[in-house]
Amino acid sequence: APPPLPPRGGGPPAAKTRESAYAMQHSFGGGDNGEPASDWVDCGVLRTRVGEREASSRSRGPARANANFKGVKVDFEALGEEARKNMEAAARAGGYYRLRIAASPQDGPSTGFVVTSVRASCLFASNFRNHLTLHFDESGLHLLSADHVAAGVDCDAIAMAGTGDFDFGTKSAGEASMGPTTTSVKFSKTAPALTYVQRRRRGDDEEGAELRYEDDEDVAEEEAKKDERTWLQKNWMLCLAGGMMFMNLLGSALEPPRQQQRRGGGGGGGAAVAR
Questions:
Q1: Any bridge partners for residue 212, and if so which?
Q2: Model-level pTM greater than 0.70?
C-alpha cells in the first residue's frame, strides 16, 4: 500500500498523546464521634491518556483547552484486612472514606495532593460503586480538585438513618474492593481578577477605594479624564443660538411701527400736491 499523504496546512492541527499516572492514597475515619482518621496508605493509581492539540497561528476566537482526554482509568487496589476493619469502623461511626490524589503526574515534580471524601456508609450501600469528578487545568496535566461520591444511592438519607449492613462478611479480596469506578473530567478557566483602584477626592485628604475588573481599562481612562471647563465654555453654542433667536424676535416686534410711519408720510405728500 502507498504511504499515507502528509496532512495539508489547512487541515486540523496534529495531536500528540500523553499518558500520565497519579498516585492515590486513602484514609478512614473522621466521623461524627470525633475519632481521628487513620494514616494515609497507598491504594492505587489514576491513569490518563490526553491528546495535546498544537496551537495554530490561524486560530481565532476564544481560547480553548489544548487537551483532549482520550481515556481515564482508576485502578484501586483490593482492600486488605486492616483496610476492611477501618472501613467497617468508619461506616458504623458515621465516618468517611478519604481519598487523596497527587496533583501532578508521578514522573514530574510533586505539587501536593487533592483531597476528597465520601461517607463510608454510603459506599457500603452502593456496594462500593463510586464516581470521581476530576477538575484539571487547561493543559490536562495538573489536577486541581476532585469530587468523590457513591453511585446510585441517596447518601443524605443513608447518613440520616445511620443504620445498615456495614460488614464485608465472607467477601473475597477481589470482591472487597472499590469499584466499578466511573469518571468525568472538567476543565478550569481563569476568570478576570479584581483589583483595587485608589481615587483621591478634591479638597479632601481621604482616599476612596473601589473594585473593578482589570479588563475595564476604557472605563478607568474615562474616569481619569475629568472635564474642568466652565458652564459657559461647554454651552457657548447654545448661548449663541439663544441670542440670535432673541434678536430675531426683537426685530420682528419693532418692524410694524416703522411701516406705519412710512405709510403716513406718503399720504401727506399727496395732499400738498392737490392744493
A1: 195
A2: no
